[in-house]
Amino acid sequence: MTDDFSGLGLSSKVIEAVTAAGYTKPTEIQAQAIPHVLEKKDIIGIAQTGTGKTASFVLPMLTLLENGRARARMPRTLILEPTRELAAQVHENFEKYGVNHRLSVALIIGGVSFEDQNKKLDRGVDVLIATPGRLLDQFERGRILLNGVEILVIDEADRMLDMGFVPEIEKIIAKLPPRRQTLFFSATMPPEIEKLTKRFLTDPVRLQVARQNSTAETIEQWAVKVSSKPEEKRDSLRALIAKADGLTNAIIFCNRKRDVATLARSLERHGFSAGGLHGDMDQKSRTETLDAFKNNRLTLLVASDVAARGLDIPAVSHVFNFDVPVHAEDYVHRIGRTGRAGRSGVAYTLVGPADGKHLDAIVKLIQRDIAWLDTGPAPKSSAPVEDGATEAKPRVPRSRRGGARTRPEAATPAVEAEAVPAAPRERPARAPRTRPVQEAPRDPAPVEAPTVAAPAPAPLTARQLAGIKPPARPSRTRPPQQAAGQSDDSGIDSSSPFGSDGPVPAFLLRPTGVKAD
After folding, report:
1. Are residues 157 and 249 in the same domain?
2. Over its length of 517 residues, how does the chain's per-residue pLDDT go in tens digits?
3. Neighbours of 409 (CB within 10 A)
4. pTM of this structure
5. Does 401 fall in a domain?
6. How many domains does the chain contain in total?
């Protein structure tokens, strides 16, 4: 491996920019990839995050693009990234290393105005950096023509697979010219990605600078046992952050986006400098939060896996896995945010009672044991208080039912236990009201009956005649069963002046078939 960039074949403009940025020695992936890219060969580069693979294609692309000129809506090169943050980071690399070039670079990502993007595309761009979804959207609008692409870069290919972008990538590649150079970079090489390389690359040079799915030796890894209760788990994290040695800044990873916002708010309430970063945030908020973390205005960045890949934040001292990642490969990418470029780093993983199988999968993948951190007996100290509180609760209903207020304080549990069933034994006097065997409750009934009927003795006879002795065949000439003193629909009182047994005048009879209300 060469000791400096001058022996890799890069142009003087590029070497000058790299030196000005403070880099003198290429990383392993850069030393292997740059010469092959300059020879216009297809490449499969397998390298873990933090190895400098972004510069391994940015630097030779700048050299190759020094000759030629872009045409309107026809980019000369295309770089596909799985997330907006990675796309923006590659754009920053072109700005940093391309200071001596007059190349136009366009960033086509979601959350940015179409109008601003269209202006750049209409002028013509040498480098187009895009996420797959937004690129296809612009293509369908007729704003981009891809038949002039000379170099295609697919970065973080395994992450593309995880996010479901493979169908979009296939559509994009189908629109590119067959005679092109393709650079394929991935941290891992699952079977699906292997199939893509066989379909779209021609005699590729395979480069692998580290063992697949390995973690950097510069990262100190710890596992910490925590409670499954969210509030206790957050308390354990805060204690861990407070006593972490040498913490200058840290990324805290959660599995779910909603937990990112919850944890960030919790840390802020407890006085920590913290902010959240997840996929549901608008692009402006995401950019502002990321810039604040990069510029040390924010100490703790709580993030979902959208920030786990390729973000170039070299000075991260610690990584905390608030949740154990479900996919073991994500563990490698998460903790790869620290210990970059030869620096040392520390990674803590909070392990709950249900996380054992995920931790075992991680250990099996990285082929390295993760030591358990002894956090002391602090979680157990609160147990007696909680147990005592649960024992005190049953005494409240006992005092209500057994009259514990009148009992002496020295009463034994046995005496109190007997006092509880004593109460129901004193209630037999109330029971005879519901027993049909005893006749006593029925005797007062005749006495109470006149009391109910007393207010209206006269109408009672008419009601009994109508209810007790109905005619065998109800006559149509008789009104319906109706209490005396009440009116039918005609408004005539049925109790007088004709009497209850006398003939009823015809003008008072209801028409046949009409029922009384």
Report:
1. no
2. 566 898 899 999 999 999 998 888 899 999 999 999 999 999 999 987 667 889 999 999 999 999 888 888 899 999 999 988 889 889 999 999 999 998 999 999 987 778 888 888 998 999 999 999 999 999 999 999 999 999 999 999 988 988 889 999 999 999 999 999 999 998 888 889 999 999 999 999 999 886 656 788 889 999 999 999 999 999 999 999 999 999 999 999 999 888 999 999 999 999 999 999 887 788 788 889 988 998 899 999 999 886 656 566 778 999 999 999 988 888 988 898 888 767 889 999 999 999 999 999 999 988 889 999 876 443 333 333 333 333 333 333 443 444 444 444 444 333 333 334 444 454 545 544 545 444 444 444 444 444 444 444 444 454 554 554 444 555 454 545 544 444 444 444 444 444 444 555 555 555 555 444 4
3. 5
4. 0.59
5. no
6. 2
The number of helix segments (H) and strand segments (E) in the chain equals: 20, 14
Let me know: does 498 contact 505? Beta carbons within 8 Å: yes
Quick one: which of 221, 206, 196, 194 has its CA closest to 368?
221
**Residue 409 to residue 503: CA distance in whole angstroms:** 84
What amino acid occupies position 400? Answer: R
Amino acid at 356: G
Asked if the structure places residue 488 within a domain, the reply is no
CATH number at residue 239: 3.40.50.300
DSSP 479: P
Among 377, 394, 415, residue at a domain's last position: 377
Ramachandran quadrant class, 203 (left: phi over 0; alpha: psi -120 to 50; beta: rest): left
Helical ranges in 51-109 per DSSP H: 53-64, 84-97
Residues contacting 9, CB < 8 A, separation 6+: 34, 35, 38, 60, 63
Q: 3-state class of 127 per DSSP? A: strand
Cis, peptide link before residue 497, omega less than 30° from 0: yes
Half-sphere exposure of 498 (CA within 13 A, CB side): 14
Q: Are 250 and 301 in contact (CB under 8 A)?
A: yes
Handedness of CA 39, 44, 47, 49 (dihedral sign): positive
Structural domain range at position 55: 5-208
| SS3 sequence of 433-475 | HHCCCCCHHHCHHHHHHHHHHCCCHHHHHHHHHHHHCCCCCCC
Type and span of the H or E element at 123: helix 114-123
Together in a domain, 78 and 159: yes
The beta strand positions in 3-54, using DSSP E, are 43-46
